[in-house]
Amino acid sequence: MNEKNAAQFDCWCVVEIFGHQRVAGRVTETTVAGGPFLRVDVPETSDTPAYTRYYSPQAVYSFAPVTEEVARGLAEAIRARPVQVYELPKLRAPAVEDRSDCCRRCHRRTVDQTETGLCLDCADQEEDHEYDSHDDGED
Q1: What is the pTM of this model?
Q2: Residue 131 needs a FRET pair 20 to 30 A away by CA distance; which of 1, 58, 84, 112 works?
Q3: How confident is the model at residue 2 (pLDDT cuts 50, 70, 90)?
Q4: Distances (CA, A) of 85 to 9, 39, 80
Q5: Coil, helix or strand for 72?
Q6: CATH classification number, 10-82, choose in 3.30.1490, 2.40.128, 3.30.70, 2.30.30
């Protein structure tokens, strides 16, 4: 049978993965990096947002087609997580860089700032611009 004419698998299922794992969701076939994979779109539950997992067919022990209602109920009961908390290192919040010594216009770090928060170059440019705008053109 020509693969282009083959029906694409698309069904709500309970999937059993080797390692005593189960997941419930909408299962479709897909290709990743040139190889076949099962894509499981796990629906949102009361404590987990919806997420997607990809499984190699060799990692799947079995799967059972079920109704959407059953799959959603089982997803709630199974409580599978996209990433386990113990797998994540303790993440530190990025340090907030102190930019108080930067010019508010050109953002260059500068030791010399005027009271307006501008470096001396930008303050001079602003002063020249103000002088030019007040010039009435008469000598």
Answers
A1: 0.55
A2: 112
A3: very low
A4: 32, 22, 12
A5: helix
A6: 2.30.30
